[in-house]
Fold:
Amino acid sequence: MKQYIVDAFSDTLFHGNQAAICILDKWPEVSLMHNIAFENNFSETAFVVKTGNDESIPKYHLRWFTPSDEVDLCGHATLATAFVLFNFYEQTTQKIIFETMSGQLTVNKNGDLYEMNFPVYDLKPIPVTDEMEAALGARPSEAYMGRDMLCVFDFEDTIENMKPDFDKVKELPGLLVHVTAKGTKEDCVSRSFGPRIAINEDPVCGSGHCHIAPYWSGEMNKPEIIARQASRRGGTLYCKIEGERMTLAGKATLYSVSELNC
Structure:
């Protein structure tokens, strides 16, 4: 089995978010995919099988696994998978279609940017609680729930200096917890915490920005948002809101290519 490791949402090695991409001819046992993801211990390992062409556009079935679970949507591993396919398997096309648990996702190659079409999560306001403050070490000014919980803060340095209590974060609602504030250089800054799925902090969370970017788009009354993930590795996301869908774009760079003995 061929495996690629890609740093997504960055064109510089050792930045952005690592993802392992396994290129398959057919689906293996689910237990093997779980074991590979656990062995890699990245926030996500992606597995992809080609299913054919749709009007000459390559079509693939894509699945994502954390070290503990299969998930329904992952932005950085989708970008990393598209990077591998465009550069090693589908060099003559500028578009790839993925069938996923979240429906059909398309990725377009635009120079060194990989543009993904993702769903926008519907955010519902929820009360700010003492439990949020205890878990995050600071009290949000607002909180919302989509698939994940989104906590909004007033200052950029609150996000950058935050030291969560991950045992308490695990008890908060939502699959992941995202914290965000208005940025000084970029439109917004954020961090993403996922101890519930064995990822204390996701270096750059694409699906999280399906919550974060729509929020800031509404607050700023602008359809295009440049977002910075303020993790230690860091990353940049270029977001464009288009109704119930959004374009999520970023760069990527290859770290390694290997052959798995399984």
About this structure: The helical segments are 30-40, 75-89, 130-136, 156-161, 166-169, 209-220. The domain at 2-119+248-259 is CATH 3.10.310.10 (Diaminopimelate Epimerase; Chain A, domain 1).
